[in-house]
Amino acid sequence: MPDFVQMPQLSDTMTEGTLIRWLVKVGDTVDVGDPLAEVETDKATMEMVAFDEGQIGAIYAEEGSKSPVGETLAVIIEEGEEVPEKPSAGASTSSESGSDDSKDNETTITESSNQNESALSNLNSNERIKASPLAKKIAKSKGFDLGMISGSGPGGRIVKKDLENFSSETSKPSSLTTTTQTKHSLSEEDKKIPLSGMRAIIAQRLLESKTQIPHFYLNIEINAQPLMDLRKQANSAAGEEGNKFTVNDFILKAVANAAASVPEVNSTFSGDSIIQFGSVNLSVAIAVDDGLVTPVIAKANQRSLLEISLAVKDLAQRARAKKLSPDEFSGGTITVSNLGAYGVDNFDAIINPPQAAILSIGSIKNTPVVSDEGNIVPGLIMKVGMSCDHRVIDGAVGAQYLSELKKRIENPASMLI
User: Fold this and answer.
1) Does the global pTM surpass 0.70?
2) CB contact set of 273 (below 8 Å; sequence gap of 6+)
3) Known catalytic residues?
4) Burial readout 239-270 (b: 16 or more C-beta within 10 A, e: otherwise)
């Protein structure tokens, strides 16, 4: 029986992918888990793997072409089997649609295979989303799109309670075209730039965040002199070959430790409850050519300053090369956005759903300050903003968290213990 190869959903926000390069050709023999092609998503370039063995019977998609998730790209056949025509959109195309949940959970071919298999689906199918069997049954009966629901179960798995207060209206993907758009007459000097996949996702998610999450904002000034002094000493001791710490490394460590001390901010709103996470999984905002990505440092509160420094350098390098895997974007519990390197003094960031808080870090400025003795002296001041989901975090809790953050940054040696 032919097995149709479809465009997989390689990230939670992916709606289409660009087929960069085929790694096989018609007539090649492939096994389960073998790489078939390189696919560029809104976040990274990843390998698409085979879920069946046989021969490549036909390739329907050209290199460089864009295809929506679920679009048929190729077909794998048994030796001697007749090559079928490409099925029409929406048709049932492979035996995978009959797979049950236990098969999804028990498949352990390779890590890459698991990541792809857990997401592979038709646009009109919820079967490959990480969800409990009961949640899938409820979603099917009510016509919900599981791809638009945030899971509160282990590993982001969607469970029954995630659907209880979810209406069919909010389950439908929001369209950017539903908002009032101002029409402009373009002159010869104007340039119309089509939205990339990443830019469209950023626009959609931030619109949803700003309109559906009740934001409030807190700001604080922090004495950064002790941090700068310690950083200078640490980098000097590291020598030419050692790891060089950035200001952001210390900030990330302080944010994670403070969140562990005030766990109310390390939470998410879940309809009739608030989920408080046991570990601080730090989402780090990284600027790339076409927008912004937020890969995750898992269990950052349990990592040393050096481990965080090495992790964020690695994530930033691979994010800009679009070489991150889907699991490296998932599971974040609180986000840090640092624009200090760009000379921005202070700003208020938009919350990264389904999280309840995001920290906005400004630049460190030489500023006159009043000493403990009452004298005006030079100082290094950093402004930090905090955007909070008021359904989860109250003002007093946010203030308590910023106080903990301030204490750690102004006493940075405590982060080395």
Assistant:
1) no
2) 161
3) 390
4) eeeeeebbbbbbbbbbbbbbbbbbbbbbbbbb
